[in-house]
Automatic annotation (TrEMBL):
Name this polypeptide is given: AP2/ERF domain-containing protein
Predominant place of localization: nucleus
Recorded family membership: Belongs to the AP2/ERF transcription factor family. ERF subfamily.
Disordered: annotated segments: 1-26, 120-148
InterPro entries with a match to the protein in the record: AP2/ERF_dom, AP2/ERF_dom_sf, DNA-bd_dom_sf
Residue span(s) of domain AP2/ERF: 26-83
Keyword Transcription found: yes
Membrane-spanning ranges: none
Entry's Gene Ontology cellular component terms: nucleus
Keywords per UniProt: DNA-binding, Ethylene signaling pathway, Nucleus, Transcription, Transcription regulation
Amino acid composition bias (Polar residues), ranges on this chain: 136-148
Gene Ontology biological process: ethylene-activated signaling pathway
Length: 148
């Protein structure tokens, strides 16, 4: 009986830790590296091998790469992170792991570029607005007040 008790408590702690790690992942099929990059990979059906889908700056880019790969592997019934963003290119046909990897990394790279471009442009615009320094040699103009 003691063995049963310990086994059940171990399984409870494992389940709890798994739930904790699932909460940290914002999307299915991705994980975060220690240094902050997001990576995506997927198992090939009926095989032990995995298809590497790339390393990305944003979790959304990694998730979109995963969605592309899972769609080509499992078809329209696949569980996707962003089903509204998937654009099916005609019929699904049997594709090799290399061609799936290529399509997924193209999508992920495109989304990563858009996401990081948007983030950097937002940072630049906020820096530009906060970096406006007043001309201390100019007399204050009562008409152009900062008050709204």
């Amino acid at each position: 009986m003691e063995g049963d008790c310990c086994t059940s408590s171990e399984s409870v702690s494992t389940t709890t830790s798994r739930k904790g790690s699932q909460r940290e992942k914002p999307y299915r099929g991705i994980r975060m590296r220690k240094w902050g990059k997001w990576v995506a990979e997927i198992r090939e059906p009926n095989k032990r091998s995995r298809i590497w889908l790339g390393s990305y700056s944003t979790p959304m880019a990694a998730a979109r790469a995963y969605d592309t790969a899972v769609f080509y592997l499992r078809g329209p019934s696949a569980r996707l992170n962003f089903p509204e963003f998937l654009v099916a290119e005609g019929e699904l046909h049997d594709m090799s792991a290399a061609s799936i990897r290529k399509k997924a990394t193209e999508v992920g790279a495109r989304v990563d570029a858009l996401e990081t471009g948007l983030i950097s442009s937002q940072l630049n615009s906020s820096k530009q607005s906060s970096n406006k320094k007043p001309d201390l040699n100019q007399q204050p103009n009562p008409e152009s007040s900062d008050e709204d």
